[in-house]
Structure formats: structure tokens, C-alpha cells
Amino acid sequence: MNKWLTKIIVAIGAVLFLLTAPLQSAMLRGSIGVVVLFLLVLFAIYQTKHPSVAAWISVALIVCTIGFTTVFFIVLRHQDGPHLWVHDSTLQTEEAMRALLDGRNPYAVDFRSTPLVDWLWQPDGHDNPALDHYVYFPGMFIVGLPFFAAVDAVNGWYDQRMLHLILLGMLIWSLARLYHSRRQWIPLVLTVAFLQPLFFYYFIIGHNDIVMYAVLAVSALALHRKRKITAAILLGIGCAVKQSVLPFTLFFIWYQLIEDGFRFSRQDIKNVLGWVWPVIVIPAVCILPFMLWGFGDFWQDTFEFFSSASVLSPINGLGITGLLYRWGVVPTVWSPLDVRIPQILCVLVVVGVCLVWMKKRNSLFRALICGTLCLATVWFFARSFNLSHLGVIIEGLVMSGILFYVSRHSPADQNISKGTAGPISR
Fold this sequence. Notes:
Shape: globular
Structural class: mainly alpha
């Protein structure tokens, strides 16, 4: 089952890449096709009896598809213009770093004097909201700032996807280490995780969801190895970078509390604060200065922007607001539509059910799938719920499914799918 499933997924992923990769040169596409075909043949030969070799071939496939295309886009962007071959969120983050280095508040400035103004935006009588609102937490540009300063000083130009490629390597490494004791599953894990179309499409154009994936994967690895403070530091960094990490952090902490047998005693609370403090301190250190610098600007960009009642961005996608617009309940995509109360109620129900579900049988698999369901609920009621959000949800479900499937078939990895609750270490 394992070997055939893996081969099928690898083949499908490679074919989809060759059909959809936006490579201008037919010769280049054909050359990559020959390499991918060669790797597929090697994979079929070695996957059964030599899983370690098959794992390295899986990595080579990822490099030839996702990695090569991303580098190709970076080079094309450098040649053709900073507003081309890239998503506006990546371009905006780069300009936010430049603004901060110039002593300007990224949440207070507009980006109309930057290359972002030339980025392709479908004309509808309104400007691109990204010109006026930076919607990510400060950690997004703070984490990349040293890398940006170093590369820009050497090259004279920078692309945020350079950092994304490093994070992709971290993600591959952490997933491989998570299943090091069952190496025969690593090819399945890598191919299912990375050769799904929405992942590599949004990665190569520069979506920053790779930051969340890397944080969650390495945090899961740390929790799996009982390194609670390491996991808390990583989750703290994630919470300082993207709002979408917050629900996963809640369930990862809940997972560890159940593992430790937390009972609300004074000593238990003291022990928990002894390892969970980075989750609070790191976001506070990153976020509070910008809240003090301009609370209104920060709040509008990072919270109000996503609210269904806001008119700062258009209604878009597959969520409840998009459905109501298509049904004629809302006259235009820029009309206000307040569904915050049902959003809050639904999120509370999902969180409550998930907490109880994890309590019954604690696992990293359940923590990951609960975070995914909670995030999906939040997004479903937001003004925008498009394919990029759907890609994140699919990746979360795929990763949680991998955790569950592999652990069920690998006795050595049962603690991934089934918790081993015990007393808190004193």
C-alpha cells in the first residue's frame, strides 16, 4: 500500500508540475521533464528495497520542481522588474523592511511610491488594498531583516523567496526527522506534503505561508522530542509573524498540558509558565513597539482589515461573505457585511469541541487538525477566503493525515497519534 501510494502521488505531482509550470522556454521545460522522468524511474527502482535512497530522490524531485522554478522566478523578476513574477505580499514585505530601515512605521506609510504600485491589480475602480495596509504581524519583516540587509548589501537587490527557500529546507528536514525511526515512510511524507499543486504554485510566486508551515513542523518535532521550551520559542516566533499561527499554538500548548497531566495546582501552573513564557514574551517584544508607535494604524491593518464588517478590502472567494454576494444579499464586493457574531460563536464551538476531542485521546495529529479546523472557521467568515487560504487548509489536513496514517502503521511512532500522559516533571 505504502509503496504504490507513494509512486502514484509522485507521478501525479510531477505531471502536474510539467503541465502547469510557467516556463517560457519549451527547451527548458523539456530538459526539466527529462530530469524529472529520470528521477521517477530511480524512485520506482529504489522505493521498495532502499527507502533512504528513495527519500533522497524525493528531495531531488522537490528541488527540481519547486526549488528550480522558484529560483527561475527570482531571476526573471530581477531581469524584468521588481513588480513582476512575484506576489504582492512578498513585494510589500520587502518594502516594509526598507521603510523600517528608513525609520518609518510600515503600518503608517503607504506603498504608492514603491514598485508595488505597478503590481498587477484587476481594475475595479479601487486601488490595491496592499498599497495602504500591511496585514501581517511585525515579525514577518523583523525576522527577515538581517537576511535582507546582508543580501541587499552584497547583491544590491533582494527577493524574500530566498528566505522562503531556506525555510523550505527546514521544513523538509523537520518532517524527515519526525519520521527518522520509520524511514520507509519519508518518501510518502515528502511527496504528499510538497507535490500537491496549491502548495508549489503559491510557494513559487512568494506566498509567505511557508513561514507557518516551517514553524509548525519544527515545533511538532520539538514537542515530539519533549523539548518544550524549544517548541515554545518557535511558536512564539510564529505568533509574532502571522495571525494564522495563533490557533495552532493554542492546541499545541493544550497537547503538552495533557501530556504533562496538568491539574491547575500552584506547582503545575509554575511549571507551565516555566516553559510557555516565550509564546507570550516574543510576540509582545515584537508587537508592542508598533502598537505604541501607532495603535490605530496597527489595529486597522492587522485585525480590522480581515473583519467581515470592514470595507478596507473586497469580498472575495469561497466564504460566507462571497456566497452572500453571489446570492445578491450584498450589492457590491466593497459593501460592509457584519457576520462577526456568528463567526465568534462558531469559532468558540469548534475550539470547545476540539479541546474535548484532544482530551479524550491526545496527539500531535489531533492538535494539528484542530488548528486547521479552527483556522478554516475563522477564514470562512472573513471578507476573503480564496484559493490560497484553501491551500493552507489542504496542507494542514494533508499533514495531519500523514501524522495519523504513518503513526497507525508504525508502532515506534505511536506517540505522534496517541499521547502518553504523565505527571509534570518537577
